[in-house]
TrEMBL record:
Family statement drawn from the similarity comment of this UniProt entry: Belongs to the class-III pyridoxal-phosphate-dependent aminotransferase family.
PROSITE patterns: AA_TRANSFER_CLASS_3
PANTHER family with a match to the protein in the record: AMINOTRANSFERASE, AMINOTRANSFERASE CLASS-III
Organism from which the protein derives: Candidatus Roizmanbacteria bacterium CG23_combo_of_CG06-09_8_20_14_all_35_49
Gene3D superfamilies: Aspartate Aminotransferase, domain 1 (3.90.1150.10), Type I PLP-dependent aspartate aminotransferase-like (Major domain) (3.40.640.10)
Protein name: Aspartate aminotransferase family protein
Keyword Cytoplasm recorded: no
Length: 415
């Protein structure tokens, strides 16, 4: 869709103009107030336009706004220091990225440069960003880098995601089968550089699928055994979304590389990061070419520092865990006999409401979203059969309840 000269992707068909946003609410350009169940897709985890974060940015803007990549602003080093304190000790080297896709591309380049291998294992239904194979298109002096580390589709091995539905009683068996199929792939291919995944959940577009408990532990064990780099995409799970500060804290797994973006600055600016160990960073700097003109601008770092401070100070993940459990329980019990629903499952405040394909005509999802908006609730369009419910983690309980009430009313209206 093209509207007022901007090109939108398909899931923006229902788009409306946001005139104002604050805390758990958005206001459209007609002045209608909406409860937000999206957090801008796991971005505004602390609520929209958090005043403390805005304040820090304003302070920084008065000091310095730009720093070129061959040097550093002191605030960038402060942020690297603070973020490393919140992570496992060995993950203490950062590249300065502008978003999730650039962080993931950097992670892939780094893993390939480190191992000297090409293949990448990833999961069907996962989403890691919309950039792909960029180096081959790029500036010719980088072609040597491209040959060493860039991504070709034939280098990808796509595994089925070991999805667990809320009604599944055989979670352990799903994990065992997954372990066997992953080990088979690792045994049969000696050119695997890395496996890319999220922490036991797919938070990206069109899914919110949940893996069996132990998923990341199994991957870590096998990646160690076969000398494969583990990239953990924390773009969606990071910053308290899943009931822990980071997704890696759910099973206490230490990956080789992590990527962050989205909630890192609570939507105050564009920022991302690839995090790895000193050993990997030292080995790969000259091959993976870490550079981004606008990576970690000082105002974004001021926002990132404050964002991290608030998550730790207020232990935001604890509220996310508690409210997420409540939200999941209410939705599951209220909709358990609804003929439209296939499954409802989630981790923390990332809940997937999956509709049965045969009961739902494609256009219904957008009608449901429009209906909810008329009733005062902003929902994200995940795809034609999935709602991804991702309220701000700071949402007040009465606002959460009101949002749940509108969501249930909407589903029941179409049932
Ligand atoms: C899990 C995950 N990884 C990576 C990305 C890409 O991030 P960005 O849109 O900042 O490039 C997304 C975006 O939705 C995502 O959900």
């Amino acid at each position: 869709m093209i509207k007022n000269k901007i090109i939108y992707n398909n899931f923006s068909d229902y788009q409306f103009k946001v005139a104002k946003a604050k805390g758990s609410f958005l206001w459209d350009d007609q002045g209608k107030k909406l409860i937000d169940f999206t957090s801008g897709w796991n971005v505004t985890n602390l609520g929209w336009n958090h005043p403390e974060i805005t304040q820090e940015m304003i302070k920084q803007i008065k000091t310095n706004t730009y720093i070129p990549q061959w040097t550093a602003d002191p605030i960038q080093e402060r942020y690297a220091e603070e973020l490393s304190k919140a992570l496992p000790k060995r993950l203490n080297c950062f590249t300065r990225e502008t978003g999730g896709a650039s962080a993931n591309i950097m992670a892939l380049k780094t893993a390939r440069a480190y191992t000297g291998k090409r293949k990448v294992i990833s999961f069907k239904d996962a989403f890691h960003g919309s950039l792909y194979s960029l180096l081959e298109l790029g500036y010719s002096p980088e072609y040597t880098v491209a040959k060493a580390v860039s991504l070709n589709f034939q280098d990808n091995i796509h595994l089925n995601y070991p999805r667990v539905k809320s009604i599944d009683k055989n979670e352990k068996q799903i994990l065992v089968s997954f372990e066997q199929s992953l080990e088979k792939v690792l045994k049969e291919n000696n050119d695997i550089a890395t496996i890319v995944c999220e922490a036991g959940i797919i938070t990206g577009w069109g899914s919110t699928f949940i893996a069996p408990k132990g998923f990341l532990t199994v991957i870590r064990r096998l990646t160690k055994k076969y000398g494969v780099v583990l990239i953990l995409d924390e773009v969606g799970t990071g910053f308290s979304r899943c009931g822990k500060l980071f997704g890696l804290d759910i099973e206490n797994v230490i990956p080789d590389i992590i990527t962050f973006a989205k909630a890192m600055v609570n939507g105050a600016s564009a920022i991302g990061a690839m995090v790895t160990t000193k050993e990997i960073a030292k080995e790969t700097i000259n091959k993976s070419n870490p550079q981004a003109t606008f990576g970690w601008m000082p105002d974004a770092c001021a926002a990132a520092l404050k964002t991290l401070e608030i998550h730790k100070r207020d232990r935001v993940w604890e509220k996310a865990k508690k409210d997420g459990k409540y939200l999941l329980k209410v939705l599951q019990s209220e909709l358990k006999n609804n003929h439209l629903i296939e499954d409802i499952n989630g981790i923390g405040m990332e809940i997937g409401v999956h509709l049965k394909k045969k009961e739902n005509k494609k256009t219904k999802m957008k009608q449901m979203i429009e209906k909810a908006r008329k009733l005062g609730l902003h929902l994200a369009y995940a795809d034609d059969y999935n709602f991804q419910i991702m309220p701000p983690l700071t949402i007040e309980i009465n606002v959460l309840d009101k949002g749940i009430e509108i969501f249930l009313k909407t589903i029941k209206f179409f049932s």
